[in-house]
Design goal:
This protein is an alpha/beta fold. It has five domains: about 150 residues; about 110 residues, no CATH class; about 150 residues, Flavodoxin domain (Rossmann fold, 3-Layer(aba) Sandwich); about 100 residues, Beta Barrel (Elongation Factor Tu (Ef-tu), domain 3); about 130 residues, Nucleotide-binding domain of ferredoxin-NADP reductase (FNR) module (Rossmann fold, 3-Layer(aba) Sandwich). The chain contains 21 helices and 24 strands. Strands 3-2-1-4-5-6-7 form a seven-stranded antiparallel sheet, with no helix packed on it. The chain is elongated. The two termini are about 35 Å apart. About 40% of the residues are buried.
Length: about 725
């Protein structure tokens, strides 16, 4: 529900929202410029009596009937003389009356456009709709962000993800409070201007009357004004000269004082009506009039509305369900493919899968998971299910589990989950779907598959399993999601290792060709490499950052590995095509200790991070086979221990000594690990999924000894994984 509330108003009224935001941002400049007006002064200890005295000397024929401080801080006096009635700025130090303000035609037009689209009263309801929609979008966006991060308590943890979807959320969190204040105050003002809420201006308190009928005494002779400092003044309205019973009305902030025109006695005090004070407050918060610094912030924040509108529309457009040619209705299809996606990425995999099946002679239906589906009894159902945020269904599958009892047919099924292992609840929704389909009595064709970070390799491997269970001769799933532009990198040097049991491995260092620049990247980001014989990119963890001037990888030969063997066969000077995929959620702690756990080439990102560290506490657990075969970065580690960049090193050799693995070293160093966790340490794991599972089990045990859990560490961003 909240997704629909957040999506459709923004899509439908996007241009109106942008228009109101941009005009509001332009108007925010005015209070800033007014702060530099030459008539803005520091009043110091000046009082109303001082103003009356100097005005009487310098402008003896100018009869004042009101004094006020305007929102820019200028002292304004209203009165009349031979030149007529006017309201002008007044210099309390030299007594000069300024010229009347000349409003800017441009700012007047922008103001009219912002308030009512320059349509007068007829345009006010349209403006009201716009600001109410903005308010609804902010509230619904906050709820969706909290849901994505795992609850309102997690609103301060880093936002994970990539692309526009991530930045839509990140920028939203940055500007949430000032944007909410600006829009809420604008909504209130619009409700008042449309007559839906009272302004409070009609709630006039009962005026007392002057007690004695006599000739009025000039205001400059009333001593009461000696104690009214200009810095405390909001306004002072003079009594009507001919009405002997009329009184002075002094406003100081939220207080009204009624002053006898004969004696200067304060006859009574009243609070400014509540609705008037609320309107004044919201006027200040929405326009910045009276708080130019806040106005500047509000104006800048308003410019985020076009960003949200445009990115929101793009995200919505990407999520729309594509309909490839050649598909049939669900009731006629041999294979039904249903997709649940949040950002639209999963649809690309599903469309490719559908085309491959149709090319193999299968009749296929492709649709979303949010509507009940009537299938043939012998049809095979394939779910492509992404997981959103903290394990919740994506927008494209939010209704699926509730509607599943209405699905008919489809006696066999297979589920392919899409997610990111950096999230604590990796593929949780896909697992729910797998369990729900099994509970419905349908038979699973194969174990649930999963795709980590849009991995083309994992998708291709899953395709081999599908080929077998569907009895197809061939099904090549070589889909690669859209990726950044590739760059050419040249191999500058290599450090080779014999490897245990003859499996070669190398540390490879690449540089950009002369005249070219490396893209921005950090250790722990990923380098996508496209081998010449296969268009499917492979991702490798980077062991360096851009400031080192090179791209460093650690590669081991894999039996049948197209890309690894291609890289290991490169000669110095040869080039590769590659692109950087940023991995901002895999970074060491800035101040707290970091526990790094890697096996084999999984040490690569840690090497770059340690080189770049500022002598913070780092404990390295490194699993390898034999010290004479695959001890990557051996000399570097010794140097890091000497210069203090490593506070502890725990190697585990699985093919010599005690045949230990990293989880064994964690167990023997459990006190050290627990101590660092108590200090707020972050745990980082890089390597195979098998190793990561064993490490997670050990960390669960260790964290329990100090009252923590692995789940809590994941949710707080203190347990990070880069596994494959």
């Amino acid at each position: 529900m909240w997704r629909h509330i957040h999506r459709w108003p923004g899509v439908i009224l996007g241009l109106l929202l942008i228009f109101l935001a941009v005009t509001g941002s332009i108007l925010s400049v005015d209070p800033i410029l007014k702060r530099f007006d030459r008539n803005v002064h520091n009043f110091g200890d000046l009082t109303v009596s001082d103003v009356l005295e100097i005005s009487a000397r310098k402008n003896p024929y100018f009869q004042i009937d009101r004094i006020r401080i305007d929102y820019s801080g200028r002292l304004m006096v209203r009165g009349a003389d031979a030149a007529g009635s006017r309201d002008v700025a007044f210099n309390p130090f030299n007594g000069r009356l300024a010229r009347k303000d000349r409003p800017s035609p441009f700012m007047d037009l922008v103001n009219s456009l912002h308030r009512n689209l320059a349509l007068g009263p007829d345009g006010r309801p349209i403006t009201l709709i716009g600001v109410v929609v903005m308010l609804v979008l902010i509230i619904s966006g906050l709820i969706l962000l909290a849901r994505r991060l795992g609850g309102f308590k997690q609103l301060l943890v880093p936002v994970k993800g990539r692309g526009l979807d991530k930045w839509h959320s990140v920028v939203g969190r940055w500007v949430l409070i000032p944007l909410f204040v600006t829009v809420l105050s604008g909504t209130w003002m619009s409700l008042v201007s449309n007559g839906i809420l009272p302004s409070g201006l009609d709630d006039t308190p009962k005026y007392p009357e002057t007690k004695i009928e006599a000739d009025p005494i000039p205001a400059s002779e009333l001593t009461v004004f000696n104690s009214v400092k200009l810095n405390d003044l909001t306004s002072l309205a003079f009594p009507i000269w001919a009405d002997w019973w009329d009184v002075y009305v002094l406003r100081q902030g939220g207080t009204l004082k009624f002053i006898d025109r004969q004696s200067g006695e304060i006859l009574s005090e009243e609070s400014v009506p509540f609705m008037t004070r609320i309107l004044d407050l919201f006027t200040l918060l929405h326009t910045g009039q009276g708080a130019s610094s806040w106005g500047a912030i509000a104006g800048l924040v308003s410019l985020s509305v076009p960003f949200f509108t445009i990115t929101g529309v793009i995200i919505w457009w990407r999520r729309r369900s594509p309909r490839p040619r050649g598909v049939v209705s669900a009731s006629k299809a041999e294979i039904v493919i249903l997709v649940g996606s949040e950002t639209g990425t999963t649809w690309g995999f599903a469309v490719h899968f559908a085309y491959q099946l149709m090319g193999s002679g299968k009749s296929v239906y492709l649709g979303g998971m949010n509507a009940p589906c009537k299938m043939r009894d012998d049809a095979s159902l394939f779910l492509f299910a992404a997981t959103y945020g903290d394990g919740v269904p994506p927008a494209g599958a939010a209704k699926f589990l509730g509607l599943l009892p209405k699905f008919t047919g489809g006696s066999h099924f297979a589920v392919l989950g899409f997610g990111d292992k950096a999230f604590a609840t990796y593929c949780a929704f896909a697992i729910e779907c797998q369990n729900a389909l099994e509970a419905s009595g349908r038979q699973s064709l194969l174990a649930m598959g999963d795709i980590n970070r849009r991995s083309a390799q994992a998708f291709a491997a899953w395709g081999h399993e599908v080929t077998s269970v569907l009895g197809l001769e061939k099904l090549n799933l070589d889909y690669t999601p859209p990726r950044p532009r590739t760059r050419r990198l040249a191999l500058a040097e290599r450090e080779d290792f014999v490897g245990y049991e003859g499996l070669p491995s190398s540390i490879l260092r690449f540089r950009a060709p002369k005249g070219r620049h490396l893209p921005r990247f950090h250790a722990g980001d990923l380098l996508g490499i496209i081998p010449p014989t296969d268009p499917v990119a492979r991702l490798y963890s980077l062991a360096s950052s851009k400031k080192e001037g090179m791209v460093e990888l650690c590669v081991v030969s894999v039996d049948g590995g197209v890309c690894s063997n291609y890289l290991l066969g490169l000669e110095v000077g040869e080039t590769i095509d590659a692109f950087v995929e940023h991995n901002p959620n895999f970074r060491p702690a800035r101040r707290a200790p970091t526990i790094m756990i890697g096996a084999g080439t999984g040490i690569a990102p840690f090497a770059g991070m340690i080189r770049d560290s500022n002598k913070q506490k780092i404990e390295l657990f490194f699993g390898l086979r034999h010290p004479d075969c695959d001890f990557y970065y051996r000399n570097d580690i010794e140097e890091w221990l000497r210069d203090g960049r490593l506070t502890g090193f725990h190697p585990a050799f699985s093919r010599c000594d005690d045949n230990a693995y990293v989880q064994d070293r964690l167990r023997s160093a459990s006190n050290t690990v627990a101590q660092h966790l108590n200090q707020g340490a972050t745990i980082m794991v890089c390597g195979s999924s098998r190793m990561a599972k064993a490490v997670a089990e050990e960390i669960e045990i260790i964290s329990a000894t100090i009252g923590l859990s692995l789940h809590e560490l994941r949710l707080s961003g203190r347990y990070l994984e880069d596994i494959y």
